[in-house]
Amino acid sequence: MPHTRPATALTVPVAASHPLTATLRRGHARTHRGCHLGAALGATTEAAWVPVADLLADTRTLDDALAAVGREVASPRRDVQASLLLEAYAWRLVLPLAGALIAESRVPMPGPDGTALRLTDDGRPRAIRLLHGRFAALPEDPAADHVDAVIVGEQTVLDLCLRSTLITHFEPFVRTLNVACGRSRRALWRTVNDRTASALLYAGLASNRIAAARPAAQRILSDPPLQHPPRYTVIDEQPVHVRHGCCLWWRTAAATMCLTCPLRVSRERQTNLLTSRSQAMR
C-alpha cells in the first residue's frame, strides 16, 4: 500500500488571464485519437498533485509510483516499471508543450521543478500540471511584452527552445530512474525521444499543421541525448512514429509488442526480406 503523503500547496501564482493559460486551454480542444494538447497551469492546494521534483527526491513516493505501474501491468520488474512510468510522464508533458509550439508558436518552459503530476489513489500518474508561466515566443506574438515571455528571433530557434527545455527537464528524471531501477540512461533517453517524436506528430495532426511539425521534429531530435530523428510512416492507415527504443511492454501481462515497437518492425522487415528472397529463388 502506498504511504500517505502530506498535502502540498503548489503556490506558484499564475493569473487566469496569463497568455499561456489561454494557450493550454485551447489545447484541450485540439485532439487526435482521443489525446488532447492541453494542461493545467499554476497553483493548486489539492493533495493529489505531487511536484515532480518531490517525486524524484522522495524515495518512498517514487517507489509507490513505480509499484503502482507494476500492479497495473502485472510486472514486478523494476526496469519495466521505470520504462512505463517515464512513458506515461513524458507523454503527458510533451503533448501540451508540442501542441503550444506547433499550434501557437509558444514554448512553455517548465524547469525540473516546474511540473506536478496528479496521481490516482494507488499512485499511478493521471495528469500533468505546469507550475509557472514562463514561455518562449516570437517577436510578433501578441503577448511578446509579457513579463514571462522570452523572445527569440525565428521559428527554428523556437524549435530548439523546446529541445533545450526537454533536455533540462528530463535529465534529473532519467538520472533518478537509472539509479532506482537500473534501466540504462540511453534506453530512458530513447523513451523521451520517441515520446517527443510521437507528440509532435499528434500536435501537427490535431492542429492541422503537420507540415510544420515534421521539420520541427527533425530539428528537435538532432543531437545527443535526443539524437534519433523521427521515423514517420503509415501503419494500418494511421500515421505513426516507428520507435527507436523498446518500452518493454512485451514484458508485461500483455506479452505482446507495441504496433510501432522497433523489435516488431525489425522482425517483420526481416520476415518480408526472407519471403522476398525465397520467392526470388523459385
Description of the structure:
The chain has helices spanning 19-27, 52-57, 59-73, 78-104, 155-181, 185-206, 210-220, 262-281, and strands at 31-32, 35-36, 40-41, 49-51, 106-108, 115-119, 125-130, 135-137, 149-151, 232-235, 238-241. The chain is of the alpha+beta class. The chain has a single domain (19-230), classed as Transferase(Phosphotransferase), domain 1. The protein has a 4-stranded mixed beta sheet. It has a 3-stranded mixed beta sheet with strand order 5-8-9. Strands 1-2 form a two-stranded antiparallel sheet. The longest helix has 27 residues, at 78-104. The protein starts with 18 loop residues before the first helix and ends with a helix. The relative contact order is 0.13. Mean pLDDT is 88; it is low at 1-11 and 269-282.
